[in-house]
Design brief:
This protein has 382 residues and is an alpha/beta fold. The protein contains ten helices and 18 strands. It has two domains: 90 residues, no CATH class; 264 residues, Alpha-Beta Barrel (TIM Barrel), CATH 3.20.20. The chain binds iron/sulfur cluster.
Length: 382
Amino acid sequence: MEKRMNILTGTIKIREEYIIGKVIKNDNAENKKDYIQVLSKDNMDKPEIGYKAYVLECDSCNSNLDNYCLGVKDIDSLSNYDVIEIIKDLNIRVLYRDDSNDNYILVTNQCNSNCIMCPDADSVRNTKDIPSINVILDHIRAIPNDTSHITITGGEPGLLKDDLIKIFAECKKYLPNTEFLLLSNGRIFSNTEFVDKFKSVVPKYTRVGIPLYADEPELHDSITRADNSFKQAVCGIKKLLNRGIDVEIRIVVQKLNYKILDKIARFICNEIPTITMVNIMSLEMCGNAIINKNQIWVDYEDIKEPVYKACLELIKHGIIVNLYNFPLCALDERVYAFAVKSISDYKVRYREECSGCTLKKECGGLFNSTINLKEARIKPVK
Ligand code: SF4
């Protein structure tokens, strides 16, 4: 398999502003090895011979047959049933990889919080790169309906308000058996009218991942840098759970909260007793996180005991705990069993010294953004 590319270039000869569809490869292409023909739903039976790939437009599109991409570089990096967006006069973006479990739909880059350790920087928020609702809906319609998992993420997806309801209604219609993870700061769900609308469209296998950084408003709001965000997030979590919608709480471990992880765990057990899953997470050191490194980074050695104690507290209450993004040597060995290899395959890195570590096979490694951070001290186990 060639290296997987996210953007493919070539001569894009389409009449519409964009076309979204599924890729069908032709391994026997002869004369048009770097050509793509777009087939609208009225012309599915008219592929011209010789093309390397055909794109079957999503349900709502119905363009003219004369849509082609010529001289497409890296065309071999596409697979059958990948979903691509062909953008007029520009390029081809890969929206969905059929052979990946890490597929996501980014619905906005805007956010109403501005977390001190966000892996996006403020500059990302200022670009207003917001995909149109029509592109998002076409993206959903083109995804094969046997896909097992899709993450809906931002920025803060809740900012889309009624458009987020439309997105989930479409997910329910086209992907009824897919598991969805919605990553949100949870604040929108404190609005009863919104959470009721969400409940009315939410696909069966949906979980909402919401972060809690503290057991009280002052510290949480100082980390999100958004007033009232703690109160709204806790209220949102309770309203979702009361309506039978699955929620996982996410705690990101950092200098500002590592000493009170057990208190946060106790708060969750006492105040949100119906929660079934808590994921404790290590930092991804890019964007705001790297800008604010001195305020947030804490040595792996210092977090071992607090993470262990928080796990213990949660497990005692029957809550499932996962540890995301931690290299194994950053954890107390009594909690190795909860560590998940959660870093996306294209972001995972290991240091040179990892090659001699007996835990390497089980270890999820470090983020590409953390690998060169000298403060991230790892300890190979011999
Ligand atoms: S030394 Fe490397 S492989 Fe071993 S546990 Fe640490 S990060 Fe993982």
